[in-house]
Each structure stands twice: as structure tokens, then as C-alpha cells.
Amino acid sequence: MRRPPVVSDAVKRGLTPLHRRQSSQLLPRTRMGGPMPWIIAIMVALVVLAAGGALALGTLADSARGELAGAATVQIVEADPQTRAVQVRRAVAALSADPAVVSVRAVPEEEIEALLQPWLGDLETGGVSAVPVPALIDIQLTEAAGDAELARLSGLLESAAPDARLNAQSDWLGPVFGAIASIQWLALILALMLAFTGVTAVWLAARNALAANAKTIEVVHLLGGDDHQIARVVQRAMRTEAVLGSAAGFVIGAAALLFLGSQFAALDSGLVAGGGIGWSGWVILALIPLLGAFVALLTARLTVLYLLRKIA
């Protein structure tokens, strides 16, 4: 038995919009007027900030390691100035003759006193001069200063300068590198928490959309529409919000990173100046809004399919 023409035409007219762009009009289109785009924008901006900070800290640590690779410092800890000066000359001579040492530089006393002056006071008041200051010798090795190489050089200095202490300069920044690694892990955890929060927000929005349009969805089912078609309708309605929110969040996060970068660059500090985000880092950051929009659309689709199966 054939379906009456009037009913057949009505079914066709009802199902046709589900295959067109106009199908998204079955659900309210809030665009930037609703909360969802702003929620996505805030989440993406915070993730960009966290990821950008982690990348900048990684660049800073790599730069510091590169500058300090193979660098070591010899301290001559001797209170008597004359004995200290003799040991400095002997240590410089012994290190200069070693093939593993590229350069040797005895740091002048005036330079050491200038470094300590902000903490120990002015020379004229007897601040620095009243405190015995060890002599310093900066050396550069042919390769990174390992424990075995440092032990060998320390043995070489024992006879020339008994009061000499040899340390790799990278050891002094070991706690700093550890703190940087901890901050990077915290940034990763923060990004994952923000991603989970964003997924939860999209899930709630999709659930509310189904609840608010239950009558419309029931009519679509009566007209022959299946769950996947309804999911596509919700996905189309969410697409504009997800794309606009992700793009706005990236712009906000990138602008904040550029502003903070200019502020740190103005400090003109040797350690801070080594930080920054290279082109590869910006490429990684540019993937965040794309990933955010994709996750939002996928979450909306899976949520709708799950709830429709549960209702059925």
C-alpha cells in the first residue's frame, strides 16, 4: 500500500533540511551572545598562556644549559691575600697547560668586589674589604664538564693550589632547572584540567540543548530522522560557537604572551633574556584553538548520540 501523496510530500519536506546547512536552524543560534563561545574562549586563552609559559621556560633552560656547558669556576678559599695570589698564579698555569681546558681567566678582585658591593656595602665603609673574599678563576672546557673530568682537574689543582675548589657552573643552577621542570609539569596539569573543564561545559550545553528542544527532536524522529542526523544538527549549531570562541581565545592568549614577553625583555637580565617562544613554539600554540574546536564538536556529537540512545 502506497503512502498518501500529502503525507509523502510532508515527510520529504521535513527531512530535506536535515541534509542542508539550514538544518542548524532547528536549534537556537546564540553565537557570541550565548555563554558557550566565551567559555571556550576563556579555556583556550588559559591553555595558550599555560603552554606558552611552559615553552618559554623550556627555551630559557636550554639556553642556560648551552651557555654553561663546559664552563667551570675555581675558587681559591684563602684568607691571606699574598698566599691567595700565589695559588691563583699556580692554578692558572696548571689549567692553561691542560689540553682539556680551552680558556682560563682569573677574575680581577675589583670585579668580584663590584659584584658583592650591593650586598656587603661600600668599599669606603669597610663593607667588602672587611670580609675575606675568595679568588675566582673562570675556565672553559672542550666539552661539558662531567664528574670524571672535574675530579681529574681537582686532582691537578691539589698540588698547585691546595685551597682550590672546582665546581661546574651548571651545578649552581641545578635548583633553578628543577624548579623550571616542576613549573612545566604544573602547566601541563593545568592545561589538562582546563581541557576537562571545557569538555564538561560542552557536554552540559549539548544536554541542555536537547532538553530545550525535546519537542523539535520528537517531531524530527516522527518524520524519519535518525540519531546521527540530529547529532549533525547540534554539531552544526555548535560549530560557529566553537570556531569563534577558539579563535578569540587564541588571540587573547597570544596577546597576553607577547605583552609578558616584552615586559621580561625590558628587564635586560642575562638569565631571563634567554627565554622566549620560537617559531616552532608558536606553531604548537596555533594548534591549540584547532584542537579545542575539534574537541568541542566531537564532544557535542558524542553527547547527543549517547543521550538519544538513552532516551530511546
UniProtKB/TrEMBL annotation:
GO terms for biological process: cell division. Keywords: Cell cycle, Cell division, Membrane, Transmembrane, Transmembrane helix. It comes from the Bacteria. The chain crosses the membrane at residues 38-61, 183-206, 242-262, 282-308. GO terms for cellular component: cell division site; membrane. InterPro entries: FtsX. PANTHER family: CELL DIVISION PROTEIN FTSX. This is Cell division protein.
